[in-house]
Design goal:
Blueprint: H1 20-26, E1 31-36, H2 43-50, E2 55-59, H3 67-79, E3 83-87, H4 96-102, E4 106-109, H5 115-124, H6 149-159, E5 161-166, H7 169-173, H8 175-179, E6 186-190, H9 191-197, H10 207-223, E7 227-230, H11 235-243, E8 249-254, H12 255-277, H13 283-286
Parallel strand pairs: 1-2, 1-8, 2-3, 3-4, 4-5, 5-6, 6-7
Protein backbone atom coordinates (compact mmCIF):
# COMPACT_ATOMS: atom_id res chain seq x y z
CA UNK A 1 0.00 0.00 0.00
CA UNK A 2 1.41 3.38 -1.02
CA UNK A 3 0.97 6.65 0.83
CA UNK A 4 -1.80 7.55 -1.63
CA UNK A 5 -3.70 4.39 -0.65
CA UNK A 6 -3.89 5.33 3.03
CA UNK A 7 -7.11 7.03 4.22
CA UNK A 8 -6.75 10.61 5.43
CA UNK A 9 -8.30 11.93 8.61
CA UNK A 10 -10.59 14.55 7.06
CA UNK A 11 -12.82 14.67 3.99
CA UNK A 12 -11.03 15.87 0.89
CA UNK A 13 -11.90 19.43 -0.12
CA UNK A 14 -12.89 19.60 -3.80
CA UNK A 15 -10.13 21.34 -5.80
CA UNK A 16 -12.43 21.86 -8.80
CA UNK A 17 -15.83 23.48 -9.24
CA UNK A 18 -17.28 20.33 -10.78
CA UNK A 19 -19.81 19.63 -13.51
CA UNK A 20 -23.23 21.14 -12.65
CA UNK A 21 -24.91 17.72 -12.69
CA UNK A 22 -22.23 16.32 -10.38
CA UNK A 23 -22.86 19.23 -8.03
CA UNK A 24 -26.55 18.35 -8.01
CA UNK A 25 -25.83 14.67 -7.46
CA UNK A 26 -23.68 15.53 -4.44
CA UNK A 27 -26.69 17.41 -3.03
CA UNK A 28 -28.86 14.32 -3.49
CA UNK A 29 -30.60 15.44 -6.68
CA UNK A 30 -31.50 12.55 -9.04
CA UNK A 31 -29.55 12.20 -12.26
CA UNK A 32 -31.04 10.00 -14.99
CA UNK A 33 -28.68 8.41 -17.51
CA UNK A 34 -29.29 6.29 -20.60
CA UNK A 35 -26.70 3.75 -21.74
CA UNK A 36 -25.50 3.24 -25.31
CA UNK A 37 -23.93 0.01 -26.47
CA UNK A 38 -25.30 -0.45 -29.98
CA UNK A 39 -26.29 2.91 -31.52
CA UNK A 40 -23.71 4.60 -33.73
CA UNK A 41 -25.31 7.95 -34.61
CA UNK A 42 -26.12 11.15 -32.66
CA UNK A 43 -29.85 10.39 -33.00
CA UNK A 44 -29.61 8.28 -29.87
CA UNK A 45 -28.58 11.37 -27.88
CA UNK A 46 -31.62 13.23 -29.22
CA UNK A 47 -33.88 10.34 -28.21
CA UNK A 48 -32.32 10.22 -24.74
CA UNK A 49 -32.95 13.94 -24.35
CA UNK A 50 -36.53 13.65 -25.63
CA UNK A 51 -37.17 10.88 -23.09
CA UNK A 52 -36.15 13.17 -20.23
CA UNK A 53 -32.67 11.91 -19.40
CA UNK A 54 -30.04 14.20 -17.92
CA UNK A 55 -27.10 12.23 -19.28
CA UNK A 56 -25.92 9.47 -21.55
CA UNK A 57 -23.10 7.02 -21.07
CA UNK A 58 -21.44 5.18 -23.93
CA UNK A 59 -20.06 1.71 -23.24
CA UNK A 60 -16.81 1.14 -25.11
CA UNK A 61 -15.78 -1.61 -22.71
CA UNK A 62 -18.47 -4.01 -23.94
CA UNK A 63 -19.07 -2.86 -27.51
CA UNK A 64 -17.30 -2.28 -30.79
CA UNK A 65 -18.38 1.36 -31.08
CA UNK A 66 -15.47 3.26 -32.70
CA UNK A 67 -14.05 6.42 -31.16
CA UNK A 68 -15.29 8.67 -33.95
CA UNK A 69 -18.89 7.51 -33.47
CA UNK A 70 -18.61 7.90 -29.69
CA UNK A 71 -17.17 11.39 -30.11
CA UNK A 72 -19.96 12.46 -32.48
CA UNK A 73 -22.62 11.23 -30.05
CA UNK A 74 -20.91 13.05 -27.17
CA UNK A 75 -20.68 16.32 -29.10
CA UNK A 76 -24.38 16.13 -30.01
CA UNK A 77 -25.27 15.33 -26.40
CA UNK A 78 -23.36 18.38 -25.20
CA UNK A 79 -25.19 20.62 -27.66
CA UNK A 80 -28.48 19.21 -26.32
CA UNK A 81 -27.52 19.96 -22.72
CA UNK A 82 -26.83 16.35 -21.77
CA UNK A 83 -23.81 15.19 -19.82
CA UNK A 84 -21.97 12.60 -21.93
CA UNK A 85 -19.83 10.00 -20.18
CA UNK A 86 -17.85 7.23 -21.87
CA UNK A 87 -16.78 3.98 -20.24
CA UNK A 88 -13.44 3.08 -21.73
CA UNK A 89 -11.83 -0.37 -21.71
CA UNK A 90 -9.60 -1.09 -18.73
CA UNK A 91 -6.28 0.81 -18.82
CA UNK A 92 -7.13 2.32 -22.24
CA UNK A 93 -5.14 5.49 -21.66
CA UNK A 94 -4.81 6.32 -25.36
CA UNK A 95 -8.56 6.96 -25.71
CA UNK A 96 -8.88 9.41 -22.82
CA UNK A 97 -7.69 12.63 -24.43
CA UNK A 98 -9.24 11.83 -27.79
CA UNK A 99 -12.71 11.32 -26.32
CA UNK A 100 -12.49 14.44 -24.17
CA UNK A 101 -11.24 16.44 -27.16
CA UNK A 102 -14.20 15.15 -29.21
CA UNK A 103 -16.80 16.36 -26.73
CA UNK A 104 -17.14 13.85 -23.89
CA UNK A 105 -18.06 15.42 -20.54
CA UNK A 106 -16.08 12.77 -18.69
CA UNK A 107 -14.97 9.19 -18.52
CA UNK A 108 -15.90 6.06 -16.59
CA UNK A 109 -12.92 3.93 -15.64
CA UNK A 110 -13.51 0.23 -14.86
CA UNK A 111 -11.79 -1.89 -12.23
CA UNK A 112 -9.99 0.77 -10.24
CA UNK A 113 -8.42 -0.89 -7.20
CA UNK A 114 -6.04 1.62 -5.61
CA UNK A 115 -5.72 5.34 -4.99
CA UNK A 116 -2.60 5.37 -7.14
CA UNK A 117 -4.58 4.06 -10.12
CA UNK A 118 -7.33 6.59 -9.49
CA UNK A 119 -4.79 9.43 -9.28
CA UNK A 120 -3.21 8.42 -12.60
CA UNK A 121 -6.61 8.37 -14.31
CA UNK A 122 -7.69 11.70 -12.83
CA UNK A 123 -4.39 13.21 -13.95
CA UNK A 124 -4.88 11.90 -17.49
CA UNK A 125 -8.20 13.78 -17.68
CA UNK A 126 -6.87 17.20 -16.67
CA UNK A 127 -4.48 19.74 -18.06
CA UNK A 128 -1.42 20.97 -16.14
CA UNK A 129 -0.88 21.85 -13.37
CA UNK A 130 -3.47 19.31 -12.21
CA UNK A 131 -2.66 16.61 -14.73
CA UNK A 132 -0.88 15.74 -17.93
CA UNK A 133 -3.62 15.90 -20.58
CA UNK A 134 -2.14 16.99 -23.89
CA UNK A 135 -2.64 20.63 -24.91
CA UNK A 136 -5.31 21.56 -27.44
CA UNK A 137 -6.30 25.01 -28.72
CA UNK A 138 -10.11 24.73 -28.80
CA UNK A 139 -12.76 22.32 -27.55
CA UNK A 140 -16.34 21.61 -28.66
CA UNK A 141 -17.50 21.89 -25.05
CA UNK A 142 -16.71 25.62 -25.25
CA UNK A 143 -17.98 26.24 -28.77
CA UNK A 144 -14.47 25.93 -30.26
CA UNK A 145 -13.73 29.44 -28.98
CA UNK A 146 -10.06 30.38 -29.06
CA UNK A 147 -9.66 31.25 -25.41
CA UNK A 148 -6.39 31.89 -23.68
CA UNK A 149 -4.76 28.54 -22.98
CA UNK A 150 -4.89 29.03 -19.21
CA UNK A 151 -8.64 29.80 -19.40
CA UNK A 152 -9.39 26.76 -21.59
CA UNK A 153 -7.51 24.50 -19.22
CA UNK A 154 -9.18 26.00 -16.15
CA UNK A 155 -12.67 25.54 -17.59
CA UNK A 156 -11.93 22.01 -18.78
CA UNK A 157 -10.35 20.97 -15.49
CA UNK A 158 -13.30 22.38 -13.55
CA UNK A 159 -16.03 20.58 -15.46
CA UNK A 160 -14.57 17.23 -16.58
CA UNK A 161 -16.09 14.24 -14.79
CA UNK A 162 -13.86 11.43 -13.53
CA UNK A 163 -15.95 8.42 -12.52
CA UNK A 164 -14.04 5.42 -11.14
CA UNK A 165 -15.60 1.98 -10.98
CA UNK A 166 -14.85 -0.35 -8.07
CA UNK A 167 -15.42 -3.95 -9.10
CA UNK A 168 -13.22 -6.09 -6.87
CA UNK A 169 -12.61 -6.86 -3.17
CA UNK A 170 -9.32 -4.94 -3.34
CA UNK A 171 -11.17 -1.91 -4.65
CA UNK A 172 -13.65 -2.17 -1.77
CA UNK A 173 -10.75 -2.37 0.69
CA UNK A 174 -9.28 0.83 -0.76
CA UNK A 175 -12.59 2.62 -1.35
CA UNK A 176 -11.95 5.48 1.05
CA UNK A 177 -8.46 6.17 -0.28
CA UNK A 178 -9.79 6.06 -3.85
CA UNK A 179 -12.64 8.44 -3.03
CA UNK A 180 -10.24 10.92 -1.40
CA UNK A 181 -8.12 11.31 -4.54
CA UNK A 182 -8.36 14.94 -5.75
CA UNK A 183 -10.02 15.00 -9.14
CA UNK A 184 -12.17 11.90 -8.62
CA UNK A 185 -15.73 13.20 -8.89
CA UNK A 186 -17.81 10.05 -8.57
CA UNK A 187 -17.16 6.55 -7.27
CA UNK A 188 -19.34 3.74 -8.57
CA UNK A 189 -19.63 0.04 -7.89
CA UNK A 190 -20.19 -2.46 -10.69
CA UNK A 191 -22.14 -5.17 -8.91
CA UNK A 192 -21.97 -7.73 -11.69
CA UNK A 193 -18.19 -7.96 -11.59
CA UNK A 194 -18.02 -7.45 -7.83
CA UNK A 195 -20.45 -10.27 -7.06
CA UNK A 196 -18.53 -12.56 -9.42
CA UNK A 197 -15.23 -11.65 -7.75
CA UNK A 198 -16.81 -12.46 -4.38
CA UNK A 199 -17.84 -15.90 -5.64
CA UNK A 200 -21.57 -15.21 -5.69
CA UNK A 201 -22.26 -14.02 -9.27
CA UNK A 202 -25.57 -12.22 -9.59
CA UNK A 203 -26.57 -12.75 -5.94
CA UNK A 204 -26.80 -9.09 -4.98
CA UNK A 205 -28.50 -9.82 -1.65
CA UNK A 206 -25.79 -12.20 -0.50
CA UNK A 207 -24.22 -11.15 2.83
CA UNK A 208 -20.80 -10.79 1.18
CA UNK A 209 -22.17 -8.35 -1.37
CA UNK A 210 -24.14 -6.44 1.25
CA UNK A 211 -21.07 -6.16 3.47
CA UNK A 212 -18.98 -4.87 0.55
CA UNK A 213 -21.60 -2.30 -0.46
CA UNK A 214 -22.10 -1.06 3.10
CA UNK A 215 -18.34 -0.77 3.56
CA UNK A 216 -18.00 1.29 0.37
CA UNK A 217 -20.97 3.51 1.27
CA UNK A 218 -19.43 4.29 4.65
CA UNK A 219 -16.00 4.89 3.11
CA UNK A 220 -17.30 7.35 0.52
CA UNK A 221 -19.41 9.13 3.12
CA UNK A 222 -16.29 9.68 5.22
CA UNK A 223 -14.46 10.97 2.15
CA UNK A 224 -17.31 13.28 1.17
CA UNK A 225 -17.72 11.78 -2.31
CA UNK A 226 -20.92 10.36 -3.85
CA UNK A 227 -21.11 6.62 -4.48
CA UNK A 228 -23.45 5.18 -7.10
CA UNK A 229 -24.26 1.48 -7.35
CA UNK A 230 -25.01 -0.07 -10.72
CA UNK A 231 -25.65 -3.39 -12.40
CA UNK A 232 -28.67 -4.36 -10.30
CA UNK A 233 -32.02 -4.92 -12.05
CA UNK A 234 -33.89 -5.45 -8.76
CA UNK A 235 -35.91 -2.23 -8.32
CA UNK A 236 -36.68 -2.95 -4.68
CA UNK A 237 -33.00 -3.47 -3.85
CA UNK A 238 -32.05 -0.29 -5.70
CA UNK A 239 -34.56 1.60 -3.57
CA UNK A 240 -33.04 0.09 -0.43
CA UNK A 241 -29.55 1.13 -1.54
CA UNK A 242 -30.69 4.70 -2.13
CA UNK A 243 -32.12 4.72 1.40
CA UNK A 244 -28.76 3.43 2.69
CA UNK A 245 -26.93 6.37 1.13
CA UNK A 246 -26.23 5.49 -2.51
CA UNK A 247 -26.14 8.49 -4.84
CA UNK A 248 -29.26 8.79 -7.03
CA UNK A 249 -27.41 8.19 -10.30
CA UNK A 250 -30.34 6.45 -11.96
CA UNK A 251 -29.72 4.17 -14.94
CA UNK A 252 -32.81 4.35 -17.16
CA UNK A 253 -31.79 1.51 -19.47
CA UNK A 254 -29.37 0.69 -22.25
CA UNK A 255 -30.21 0.81 -25.94
CA UNK A 256 -29.90 -2.94 -26.57
CA UNK A 257 -32.25 -3.84 -23.70
CA UNK A 258 -34.75 -1.09 -24.52
CA UNK A 259 -34.90 -2.08 -28.19
CA UNK A 260 -35.30 -5.77 -27.36
CA UNK A 261 -38.09 -5.09 -24.87
CA UNK A 262 -39.92 -2.89 -27.39
CA UNK A 263 -39.53 -5.47 -30.16
CA UNK A 264 -40.85 -8.25 -27.92
CA UNK A 265 -43.84 -6.12 -26.97
CA UNK A 266 -44.59 -5.37 -30.63
CA UNK A 267 -44.41 -9.09 -31.50
CA UNK A 268 -46.77 -9.97 -28.66
CA UNK A 269 -49.16 -7.22 -29.75
CA UNK A 270 -49.13 -8.38 -33.37
CA UNK A 271 -49.78 -12.01 -32.41
CA UNK A 272 -52.57 -11.03 -30.00
CA UNK A 273 -54.23 -8.94 -32.73
CA UNK A 274 -53.96 -11.85 -35.16
CA UNK A 275 -55.44 -14.28 -32.63
CA UNK A 276 -58.44 -11.98 -32.13
CA UNK A 277 -59.51 -12.45 -35.76
CA UNK A 278 -58.39 -16.05 -36.20
CA UNK A 279 -60.23 -18.12 -33.55
CA UNK A 280 -58.06 -21.20 -34.02
CA UNK A 281 -54.98 -19.25 -32.98
CA UNK A 282 -55.32 -18.11 -29.36
CA UNK A 283 -52.78 -15.75 -27.81
CA UNK A 284 -51.72 -18.49 -25.41
CA UNK A 285 -50.92 -20.88 -28.24
CA UNK A 286 -48.78 -18.21 -29.84
CA UNK A 287 -47.09 -16.99 -26.69
CA UNK A 288 -44.09 -19.23 -27.24
CA UNK A 289 -43.49 -17.54 -30.56
CA UNK A 290 -43.27 -14.17 -28.87
CA UNK A 291 -40.77 -15.33 -26.26
CA UNK A 292 -37.13 -14.77 -27.04
CA UNK A 293 -35.03 -17.49 -25.53
CA UNK A 294 -31.39 -16.84 -24.62
Amino acid sequence: MTSRDKPQEHPASPPFQGHPLMQGLARGEPLTAFGIRMARTPDVARLAKAAGNHAIWIDLEHSTIPLDAAGAICAAAHDLGLMALVRVPEREYGAIGRLLDAGASGLIFPRVETAAQAADLASACRFPPHGHRSAIAALPQFGYRRLAAAETYRLANDTVVVNVLIESPLGIENAEAIARVPGVDLVSIGCNDLSAELGVPGDYRHPLVRQALDSALAACARAGKPLSIGGIADAALNTELLARGAAPFLMTGIDTDVLLAAMQERVRGALTAHASVVPSCSPSSLSSLATVRP
